[in-house]
Design brief:
Pfam families: TauE. This is Probable membrane transporter protein. The chain crosses the membrane at residues 43-62, 74-93, 99-118, 164-183, 189-210, 222-240. One of its GO terms (cellular component) is plasma membrane. The chain is built from eleven helices and no strands. With 241 residues, the protein is mostly helical. The protein has one domain. Helix 3 packs antiparallel against helix 8, helix 3 crosses helix 9 and helix 3 crosses helix 10.
Length: 241
């Protein structure tokens, strides 16, 4: 696979924690894990995290399917399709350094918008726009959560987790197909992803504990702090490199 044991272990730990966050609040896989993967092996992005996010979302959708907002999810997916195509073209056109800096920028902007408390109403127009933005960003950087979190931030608990997960379940499949069609997923990416599959299962198990002992607000704030740190380290690394 071309990864040292230490590098693989670091990515695996990041994926476990990011999967736990994704399963607990409905998003965060890319925001938490992508900066770590970009520092260790940027060639694995965005394909590896897109595929691993699919594993997490399947588990959440299966266990909490009765809470899904089908109407809102449908309109968001309507916007996801064109956004996904543009995102795949962006990945094919950008060099690894440009992709890493774009990734860090998406993390910081997403954190800023969530922290400022901007609350767009979940009407059809906003759902379609958020779906398109999520498709573009999720396919290009594996971070598609912030747009949907903004438009669905009035939802809580199982409704938020299941609705976000159902959206990302279909969305991650679309992103993977678009990335594969553009030549952005190679054999090495598939091998590393296969080796990391146990990590999202462990993260989902960890989320069951977190949902019992940790308030969603505190979990979200912790994730934001870690995401900011990861993005800043990534920017510094790219600028110094």
């Amino acid at each position: 696979m071309g990864l040292s044991i230490g590098s693989f272990a670091l990515i695996a730990v990041a994926v476990v924690l990011a999967s736990a966050l994704q399963a607990s609040i409905g998003f965060g896989m890319g925001m938490l894990a992508a900066p770590v993967v970009a520092l260790v092996d940027p060639g694995l992005l965005p394909g590896t995290l897109v595929m691993l996010a699919f594993v997490v979302t399947v588990m959440v959708v299966v266990t909490e399917r009765q809470h899904i907002d089908l109407g809102g999810t449908g309109w968001a997916l309507f916007g996801r399709v064109p956004g996904t195509i543009v995102g795949a073209l962006l990945v094919a056109a950008l060099p690894e350094r440009g992709l890493a800096l774009l990734l860090a920028g998406v993390v910081l902007v997403g954190v800023a918008l969530n922290s400022l408390g901007w609350r767009p109403s979940p009407v059809r127009r906003n759902l379609v726009a958020a779906g398109a933005a999520s498709g573009l960003l999720g396919t290009a950087t594996s971070i598609g959560g912030p747009p949907m979190a903004l438009v669905w931030q009035q939802k809580h608990g199982a409704v938020l987790r299941s609705s976000m997960s159902s959206f990302f379940l279909v969305g991650s499949m679309l992103s993977f197909l678009a990335l594969a069609a553009s030549g952005s997923v190679d054999q090495r990416t598939l091998l590393v992803t296969a080796a990391l599959v146990p990590a999202p299962f462990a993260g989902w198990g960890l989320s069951l504990l977190l949902n019992k002992v940790m308030a969603p607000v505190r979990l979200r704030r912790t994730a934001i702090a870690v995401s900011i740190f990861g993005a800043v380290v990534l920017v510094v690394d790219q600028l110094l490199g």
